Amino acid sequence: STAASTGASTGASAGASGGAGAGGGGGGGGGGSSNLGSDPLSLIFIVQGISVTSKISVMPAEYSTDFAGGFSMFNLQMAPPDWAKDGMTLGWAGRRLSGDSDSIFADDSAATRTLRGHFFYTLFLVITVPLAHVALLRLVEACLKKPLPEMLHPPLLEIKIFQVLVMGIFDSGFAVLASPESRTAWKVIAALEMLSVVAVTVWFMSKGLAFKRNSRWIPIANVPTRRTPPKD
To answer: Nearest 5 degrees, angle CA 195-CA 199-CA 202?
Structure first.
């Protein structure tokens, strides 16, 4: 069932990459207890951590700008494409809310510009990755004329994408909250984006704990593996 596969996927994902995620969140310890050769996410977490260190005020400009700042793309901290720049300023929404020409979202501070670009690419991935994943699964199953293994179905890939997005979300969000130049409206958006990560994380952990409660260790090929017992 969907619930069972979700629980199994989240449980497996939490066990496999939890160390890498915790290390990445620590700002560069990204490998955690994982092996770089066996978990490519660890390398991404390390690079993301290097990008975050570029925000530390005591760092020399040569490091922050010339070296660490170059890795900001791994946190999706890039300018949105030209066709999306006007829409991402949210001027249209601000004028509608405030009722005059002075938009509450009128903000050109560096932190807010970074958040706008990051928000665009995050939203793009959150929408396109699940749709492309499901479409590819359906296409392959139609060609093979048989279902693919559960491990290839959602949400395992989506959970990995979420883990990669988390550091960029918090890095961009905290930068706006700490910036005296950013307007209140953008601080609210930053806070809501970070709270959404907390909400998804709580859901993620609840699924893992539910799977743990309803499963037991079963030896498969002499390797203890956690599996949901078959129903009678």
So the answer is: 135
